[in-house]
């Protein structure tokens, strides 16, 4: 069922994906409220620069608050009547979850519980929330399908994202809250996160510093350009999930349900070997990387590859931006944003 989503809450609005989603929705004329705690997990200056661009729009309102703080979040919901909530606020990063597990419990479990409660008590028509390709964990059947079991996470980050899916399902079952979870696959592009591979590699290559190539470059990733992610989210927002009449408790489908709940992959459906990814960056920069080959890190998976058949069937879209195009767009932004470094 399609809905008219005029008033939208985007959590994590100063983040990479949140910023781009807000920009898209603001340009469509929607009334957007963004919240973010502006935490220092990475450069707060980058978050502030994103936010400054959003605040130039008259139809954007920002509240600095943390989804893990229930009272602050409740005030945001009480002052607004949101049609749709898009939860992108989370403690991100697989490797950081080995160092600071509590941050993931606070943001991804406690925070998400608060989001669910606020949606439940304020008549939200559709909750769309970010999950992750990391939930596929130890799975090796390719491409990854939302209809496959995902009960073997290999990082706490992945476990919290899987937990979000289960929590959302329970709220859909108990309270009729329509929920859609989106498993994003290795998102990259302009305004991206400094802890992600493309940002790290580009910065190091331009500065003549070595890059760390884990698993000796023999990993594959379904790199997905930010504009494709946003297109998928924007289409899903307006489509409230309906119960699946074919769902059976005797053979339960993890991707659908008897209640208003769905899971979708948003990925490029075209895995690329890490070493090829690095070569594409080198080609764009016109400069070779100094490579430091290392073993696979704890919590990392060897390959990701998205089955996007359900996304294509239900909203008529699949990501299609080529890696070469996406990397060129990122490098252009990076050089523009960091002009002071005189590359």
What general outline do the C-alpha atoms trace?
globular
Overall mean pLDDT stands at 95
N-to-C SSE string, H for helix and E for strand: EHEHEHEHHEHEEHEEEHEEHEHH
Distance between the termini: 50 Å
Question: What percent of residues adopt helix (DSSP H or I)?
Answer: 25-40%
Q: How many individual β-strands?
A: 13
SSE class: alpha/beta
Whole-angstrom Rg: 19 Å
Put the structure in a nutshell.
The chain has 343 residues and is of the alpha/beta class.
Report on the architecture of this protein:
The chain has helices spanning 16-27, 44-54, 70-79, 96-99, 101-121, 156-175, 197-207, 226-237, 274-285, 309-315, 323-337, and strands spanning 7-11, 31-36, 60-64, 84-87, 126-132, 179-184, 187-188, 210-214, 220-221, 224-225, 261-266, 272-273, 290-294. The radius of gyration is 19 Å and the shape is globular. The strands form 4 sheets. Strands 3-2-1-4-5-6-11 form a 7-stranded parallel beta sheet, with helices on both faces. It starts with 6 loop residues before the first strand and ends in a 6-residue tail after the last helix. With 343 residues, the chain is of the alpha/beta class. Helix 3 packs parallel to helix 5, helix 7 packs across helix 9 and helix 9 packs across helix 11. The model has no long low-confidence stretch (mean pLDDT 95). Helix 1 (16-27) links the parallel strand 1 (7-11) and strand 2. The protein contains 11 helices and 13 strands.
